Amino acid sequence: QVQLQQWGAGLLRPSETLSLTCAVYGGSFTGYFWTWIRQPPGKGLEWIGEIWHGGRTNSNPSLKSRVTISVDPSKKQFSMTLTSVTAADTAVYYCVRGQFLREYWGQGNLVTVSS
Amino acid sequence: QSALTQPRSVSGSPGQSVTISCTGTSSDVGGYDYVSWYQQHPGKAPKVLIYDVNKRPSGVPDRFSGSKSGNTASLTISGLQAEDEADYHCCSYAGSYTHWVFGGGTKLTVL
Q1: Residue A64: its pLDDT value, please?
Q2: What φ, ψ does residue B82 adopt, rounded to 5°?
Q3: How far is B14 from chain A (nearest CA, A)?
Q4: Percentage above 90 pLDDT, chain B
Q5: Distances (CA, A) of B18 to B6, B46, B64, B91, B111
Q6: CB–CB of B93 and A100 under 8 A?
Q7: What is the mean pLDDT of residues A77-98?
Q8: Which of A5, B32, B37, B67 is most buried, by CB atoms within 10 Å?
Q9: Which of the residues B96, B99, B106, B107 would you substitute to probe the A interface, choosing the one with the greatest number of A C-beta atoms within 10 Å?
Q10: pLDDT at A112 exceeding the cut of 80
C-alpha cells in the first residue's frame, strides 16, 4: 500500500519561504512523476509542478520564478519551496504520485500566510 | 479564474444520472486525450475517478464514466448514491509550457 506523508510549516509571514516535504512509503519511487497541487480555501485545485524521480521538473508558469521542486530518491522523498509568499499563497498543499494518473495523495498541509 | 470551466453546482436524486461538464479550449481539453476527474469530500484529499478521458483506476465503480467531445469533457455518474455528494474537479494537459490546468470544481448535491 502506497502512502504519502507530508510536513512543513503551517504559518508564514508575507515574504517568507514556504517549504514542504513528502515521504513515500510502500511501492516504487522510481518510474513516477511526483507532483505538488494546492487548493486555496473554498476554491479549486491548482497544479504547482512535478518532478521525475531522476530530477527533471515541470512547473506552473505562473509560479515558476518562485517555486523549486527537488527529489531525494535515496530517502524516497521530494520537496518544494515557494519563495516570497503572500496571502494569495494561503492554501492546502498536497503531494501526489503520478502525472496522468494521480492515484496517491498526501493528507494535505494547510499553509496560512498572514502578518 | 480557473482555466477550465465547470458548473458551480449540479444536483440529482438517488438512482438518477448526472453529467458534469468541463469546458476548455483546443489548447487543452480539445488538444489532448489527457483529461482526469477527481472526487473530493469535505476535508479530504481528492480521489481520482477517471484518467485519460475515460479510463477508470481499479476500485472505481463503473457508475463513473468519462467522455470528451471537442473542447468539452464530461463526467457522468449513474445510479446516484448519497455518498456521491462531493466536489468534482476536472484536469487537462495543456501542452509543454502550461502543462496542467484544473477546473474550478463542481459541487454535487444528492437530493
Answers
A1: 86
A2: -55, -35
A3: 26
A4: 96
A5: 14, 19, 10, 19, 12
A6: yes
A7: 97
A8: B37
A9: B99
A10: yes
Contact A44 B52 (CB under 8 A): no
Q: Which tens digit of pLDDT belongs to each residue from B7-53? A: 999 999 999 999 999 999 999 999 999 999 999 999 999 999 999 99
Minimal Cβ distance to B45: which of A46, A61, A106: A106
Contact between A95 and A32 (Cβ < 8 Å): no
* Contact flag B89-A101 (C-beta cutoff 8 Å): no
SS3 B95: helix
**Residues of B near A (CB-CB distance < 8 A)?**
2, 34, 36, 38, 45-48, 51-52, 55, 57, 89, 91, 93, 97-105
Q: Which residues of A touch B89 (CB under 8 A)?
A: 44-45
Please check whether residue A107 touches B, CB under 8 A: yes
Grid coordinates 510502500 are at which residue?
Answer: A26
Query: Rounded CA gap, B47 and A21, in Å?
Result: 21
